[in-house]
Fold this protein.
Amino acid sequence: MLLIDDEGKKQGIIATKKAIQLAEEKGLDLVVVSASQSPPVAKIMDYGKYRYEMEKRAKEAKKKQKTIELKEIKIRYKIDVHDYNVRIKSAKKFLQGGDKVKVVVVLRGREAQHSELAFDLAKRFLNDMEGEAMVVEKQPTFEGRNIILVLAPSSV
């Protein structure tokens, strides 16, 4: 195996037993860095410290990742103009923040008879969101007593 010592210098191709003996003399561990290469590459290092550094890097990478959430906005087809504008504004804010938006038009009781008005509202919502950088992930569809529409930011 090709051996790299604790200072990062190549020692050349050395037998496994000899490499283990060198590592023990220095009070360190022998770690196979690349087993797929021919000959395999091993390095003399403190394995506990190496593992700690790898976990630390993984945590840092995880911190920088953005998790995409699904934000839900509920509206009724009899919604007032101001309330509707507030929902549009919050949907735009969610999309700019990188989150998906699920718009639910809720129909209660006899309102289900006026499902075409609810579909019109969902389509109007889509038209009002037209200027945003977004992708329509799910077109307005009837699910139970609700009409559901899902929007995602275009960068996703």
